[in-house]
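Input record, target 12 of the design panel.
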């Protein structure tokens, strides 16, 4: 879709996509790529921190450091960190999928209908894969 390579576009720091621009023009793609790449880097950085915290807590737990209450707290911390790590891994997968859609020209378009998701929705939720209507229908079916 995009003729210019959006990865090489340098945007002004104040740039925000506008409705007056062609939908998912190279500048808009560059904007979303910048956002998604930053989120990806932050998650990768956090993942290392969380894993180090889990390793340290497991090491202290296996060494028998502290009393029973300390060990229970450490176990809760390990569980919480593992849940956060799983959540972050899921989010990382979604970000990677969004970046892949940017690269193959399908970003900003519904995975169901191929319709434009809409700039406002993409600005609010850069990981969106469906239009508002499709998302609402999906959520209703999930509840039933």
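The sequence produced for target 12 reads:
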């Amino acid at each position: 879709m995009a003729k210019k390579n959006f990865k090489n576009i340098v945007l002004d720091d104040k740039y925000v996509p506008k409705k007056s621009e062609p939908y998912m023009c190279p500048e808009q793609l560059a904007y979303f790529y910048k956002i998604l790449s930053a989120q990806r880097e932050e998650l990768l950085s956090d993942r290392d921190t969380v894993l180090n915290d889990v390793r340290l807590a497991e090491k202290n737990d296996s060494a028998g450091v502290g009393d029973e209450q300390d060990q229970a707290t450490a176990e809760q911390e390990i569980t919480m960190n593992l849940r956060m790590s799983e959540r972050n891994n899921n989010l990382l997968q979604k970000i990677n999928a969004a970046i892949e859609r940017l690269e193959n020209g399908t970003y900003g378009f519904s995975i169901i209908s191929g319709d434009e998701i809409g700039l406002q929705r993409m600005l609010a939720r850069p990981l969106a894969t469906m239009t508002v209507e499709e998302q609402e229908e999906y959520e209703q079916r999930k509840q039933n």
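Residues 23-143 form a domain with the Four Helix Bundle (Hemerythrin (Met), subunit A) fold (CATH 1.20.120.910).
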